[in-house]
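Repro:
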Amino acid sequence: MKTTKKSILKDGSHKHLKDASYSQGLGYKDVKDLCPPEIDVACHNSSNSSTISGPEELVKTFVQELMNENIFARAVNVANIAYHSRYIRPAAPKLLEYLKQINQDEVISMRKERRGSYQPPIDGRSIRMK
């Protein structure tokens, strides 16, 4: 059984499937009070950089306001799901269910080379679900 972030959410536990995340040029301390209440500071990158997440239209409107003030902002590809925001919380029970299916005795080791090809684990084992 192959489990991906998107497959975890296909069951409808994440009803708000139009999210966005943007990296922008303000640190947490500077942006936290500027964000509308529906937008989360998802990642504290540095004193002059953080990532914000939330409902797509609200985030885009807020980002445009930042850009109008000459504050850097760049979209982060999150496939419409802001994983580092409160909007992912409804999917937590399903995610936990999937995580409990992973055989804890197996070593999970997947690596991708720069060109993106799959390299099997050194011991030949792969992820196995119970």
